[in-house]
Amino acid sequence: MMGAIHYPFRVWQRNLSVFFRVWKPELAFSLAEPVFVLVVMGLGLGSLIGSIEGKSYIQFIGPGIIAGYAMYSSAAECTYGSFTRMKIQKTYDAIIATPVNVQDVIIGEILWGATRSMITSGMVLAVISVLGMVSSPWALLIIPLSFLAGLMFSSISLLYTSIAPSYYTFNYFYTVFITPMYFFSGIFFPLTNFPRIVQDLSWLAPLTPVAKLTRAMAGGRWSDDLFLSLAVIVVVTGIFFFLALKSMKRRLVK
User: For the whole model, what pTM was predicted?
Assistant: First the structure.
């Protein structure tokens, strides 16, 4: 049974307090990498590619990079971060010794991963807005979208963490799952540029609907299929949230 409704928030609050102790280097790194990718890919590769869908290449990839680093932020927090708190620091054991129970801890971790996703996305959104890559006030919806995407990727990542025996095994998660999604979800090139089979398979990647929605919000371009993208994110989030809850509880209650 889950404890009081505010207990997951207390776990989230604990992680936030720790974050505030080291926020300067954390935020600097969170912003530096996506901006570096944006400049190198947008200006470097963009000089060879030209325009895509009526935009310069850097304008095309800007919103996609927001989606990509929404994924990376939440995944990192709920793999390496959660594993450290679980196995190395024994933080989970200490928390569970209080009235907060296992389910509260898991939900709090997922909420914190989603928060990190939202923070990183908000920072990158601010940068691309200053650089003139946002043309619609609807871009503000990217912030809540990044939180929802963070819930999804946090749940997926925590599910993997629940079966990971060591830090080393996270290499498989990033190599087989996270990195391919980053390159084959429409962030750097339109999906229509790929062979048909790759286009079809790309929709199996949870990042694809996030990138599609982020780009639409940044440009203020809406279509009916965007609601399908949103529905996919909600359904995948629900499935993996449930699986992460069950699998992580099984690991912690032994």
Answer: 0.91
Rounded Cα gap, residues 234 and 57, in angstroms:
30
Q: Are the C-beta atoms of 149 and 67 separated by less than 8 Å?
A: yes
User: Could you give the CA distance from residue 126 to residue 204 in angstroms, rounded to a whole number?
Assistant: 30
Q: Convert the pLDDT of each residue in 64-102 to its tens digit.
A: 999 999 999 999 999 999 999 999 999 999 999 888 899
3-state secondary structure of 241: helix
Tens digit of each residue's pLDDT (9 = 90 or more) over 109-124? 999 999 999 999 999 9
Going from N- to C-terminal start, the domains of the chain cover 7-252
DSSP per-residue codes, 83-113: HIIIIIS-HHHHHHTSS--HHHHHHHHHHHH
pLDDT at 1 over 50: no
Q: How far apart are CA 187 and CA 181, in angstroms?
A: 9
| 243 Cβ contact list (under 8 Å, min separation 6) | 155, 159
CA 32 vs CA 67, 98, 120, 123, 128: distances in Å:
16, 38, 10, 10, 13
Q: Looking up tokens 């996305």, which residue turns up?
A: 121
